[in-house]
């Protein structure tokens, strides 16, 4: 062994072992790109099979924590007996490299958020995947919806996973593309991953992979967990997504803050302060199918009419089947009229989410989980500007949920009929047409929206260290203060 500074390294942090023809210096640094760009990999044909030198590559955590910026560690070894190739093979087997993920489609959005995604790919993601021996096919998105088209065209038998280097919008497009293919049942089994390259990166916060090194490490290891998705139906259009549906104040913030994307996650806070100078009041109807009532409201199979001596009226034909997971509660556009909960009121805030974090700073629902088969609906019917400000300033704890003006329900499905908005607190004077409906960061048509959860419909790449109970602990700690 050449490196005399060796300390214990968890095998979960090792992402590569490569042969080298000559010694390279051992390095430990927080500047990952500077190490990765200079790491040399001998290919199978050009490498000296009798070489005694090999490198071990690992992610270096800061104080052992995954919520701080990590670095890269490169350690040089000299094998005097078995040869470098045998050592490399043994380390790769032990660290679980290339056992599940061998070939990856990487979709990069060079235009999203702070426009750093392509740099992140070139300086961190690509070198790490190459050092792990994973084959890469990279595609850059050119316009909104491009990732959906790419996902619909992916040859499933050629890839072990599809990964985005992007924000939440492109990840949403990939899920929608996979689940609206004719072979969606097979496509849903392809693991999906995300490496944060946007301005909010909520999905990475939910996966505890806030930094590109950690997210790429998770891709290399290939561990997955089931993930719920939800369908969004508007008229005859059905799409699938993973994060949230927002309307009123939060949707306004998301899209009105586009001009501040260069600020990263802080753009929402700035837009909120500007919007709070004059708070809009929306009106609408909200229909909820509570989680516990759902079994009584599943779509009944269509049965043929029995002929009798008396003339009968045949029931209407069932709606046409859409691609993607079966909609048990929302395929019938009138089913919600029979649900037990209806709210016809003013709204200042509305969201429905299947995950705890709706941005990297906003812990919207600490009790939500990747795969609990439910949507959490959160809204406020009458919230003052100062109360809204309190919610915005306390995004990271989830404590706002205990405020008396916040309502919550856990549901299997919901239908939202959004109307216009007004500066008037009752939402009735000088009503203006509404504009923004938000599905996982993407603007959709402003109109009646039917949403339904589909349990464990996808497999998402997750790191070994992900502990979803941490989000509940954060909220409990905040309540005790």
Topology, please?
Layout (H helix, E strand, L loop, with lengths): L13 E7 L6 E3 L2 H5 L16 E8 L10 E8 L5 H12 L7 E6 L8 H15 L3 E6 L5 H8 L7 E6 L1 H12 L4 H4 L4 E5 L5 H5 L5 H10 L2 E11 L2 E5 L2 E5 H8 L10 H10 L4 E10 L50 E7 L1 E5 L21 E6 L4 H9 L13 E16 L14 E3 L2 E3 L4 E13 L7 H12 L1
Parallel strand pairs: 5-6, 5-7, 7-8
Antiparallel strand pairs: 1-3, 2-4, 3-4, 9-10, 9-19, 11-14, 11-17, 12-13, 12-16, 14-15, 15-16, 16-19, 17-18
Helix pairs in contact: 3-8, 4-5, 9-10, 10-11
List keywords for this structure.
28% strand; alpha+beta; 23% helix; single chain; elongated
Distance between the termini: 51 Å
Give a short account of the largest sheet. Answer: 11 strands, antiparallel
Query: What is the mean predicted local confidence, pLDDT?
Result: 85
Number of helices: 12
What does this structure look like?
- This protein has 481 residues and is α+β, with helices and mostly antiparallel strands.
- Helix content is 23%, strand content 28%.
- It is built from twelve helices and 19 strands.
- It has helices at 32-36, 84-95, 117-131, 146-153, 168-179, 184-187, 202-206, 212-221, 249-256, 267-276, 385-393, 469-480; strands spanning 14-20, 27-29, 53-60, 71-78, 103-108, 135-140, 161-166, 192-196, 224-234, 237-241, 244-248, 281-290, 341-347, 349-353, 375-380, 407-422, 437-439, 442-444, 449-461.
- Strands 9, 10, 11, 12, 13, 14, 15, 16, 17, 18 and 19 form an eleven-stranded antiparallel β-sheet that branches.
- A hairpin with a 2-residue loop joins strand 9 (224-234) and strand 10 (237-241).
């Amino acid at each position: 062994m050449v490196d005399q500074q060796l300390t214990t390294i968890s095998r979960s942090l090792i992402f590569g072992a490569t042969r080298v023809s000559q010694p390279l210096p051992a390095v430990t640094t927080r500047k990952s790109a500077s190490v990765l760009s200079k790491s040399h990999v001998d290919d199978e044909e050009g490498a000296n099979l009798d070489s005694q030198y090999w490198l071990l590559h690992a992610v270096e955590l800061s104080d052992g924590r995954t919520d701080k910026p990590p670095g890269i560690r490169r350690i040089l070894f000299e094998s005097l007996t078995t040869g470098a190739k045998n050592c490399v093979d043994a380390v790769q087997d032990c660290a679980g490299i290339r056992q599940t993920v061998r070939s990856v489609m990487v979709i990069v959005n060079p235009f999203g958020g702070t426009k750093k995604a392509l740099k992140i790919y070139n300086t961190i993601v690509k070198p790490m995947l190459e050092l792990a021996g994973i084959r890469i096919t990279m595609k850059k998105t050119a316009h909104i919806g491009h990732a959906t088209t790419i996902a619909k065209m992916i040859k499933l038998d050629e890839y072990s996973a599809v990964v985005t280097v992007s924000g939440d919008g492109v990840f949403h497009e990939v899920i929608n593309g996979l689940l609206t293919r004719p072979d969606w049942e097979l496509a849903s089994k392809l693991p999906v991953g995300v490496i944060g390259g946007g301005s909010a990166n909520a999905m990475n916060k939910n996966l505890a992979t806030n930094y590109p090194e950690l997210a790429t490490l998770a891709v290399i290891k290939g561990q997955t967990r089931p993930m719920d998705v939800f369908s969004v139906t508007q008229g005859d259009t059905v799409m699938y997504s993973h994060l949230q549906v927002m309307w009123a104040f939060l949707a306004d913030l998301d899209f009105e803050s586009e001009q501040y994307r260069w600020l990263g996650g802080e753009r929402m806070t700035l837009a909120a302060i500007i919007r709070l100078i004059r708070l809009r009041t929306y009106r609408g109807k909200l229909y909820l199918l509570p989680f516990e009532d759902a079994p009584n409201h599943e779509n009944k199979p269509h049965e043929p009419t029995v002929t009798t001596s008396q003339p009968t009226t045949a029931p209407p034909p069932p709606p046409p089947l859409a691609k993607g997971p079966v909609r048990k509660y929302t395929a019938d556009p009138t089913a919600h009229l029979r649900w037990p909960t209806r709210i016809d009121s003013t709204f200042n805030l509305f969201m429905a989410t299947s995950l705890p974090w709706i941005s990297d700073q906003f812990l919207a629902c600490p009790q939500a989980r990747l795969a609990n088969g439910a949507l959490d609906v959160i809204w406020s019917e009458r919230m003052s500007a100062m109360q809204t400000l309190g919610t915005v300033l306390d995004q990271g704890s989830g404590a706002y949920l205990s405020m008396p003006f916040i309502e919550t329900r856990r549901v299997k499905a919901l239908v939202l009929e959004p109307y216009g908005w007004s500066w008037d607190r009752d939402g009735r004077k000088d009503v203006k047409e509404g504009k923004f409906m938000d599905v996982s960061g993407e603007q959709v048509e402003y109109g009646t929206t039917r949403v339904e959860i589909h349990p464990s419909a996808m497999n998402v790449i997750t790191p070994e260290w992900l502990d979803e109970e941490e989000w509940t602990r954060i909220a409990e700690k905040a309540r005790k203060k």
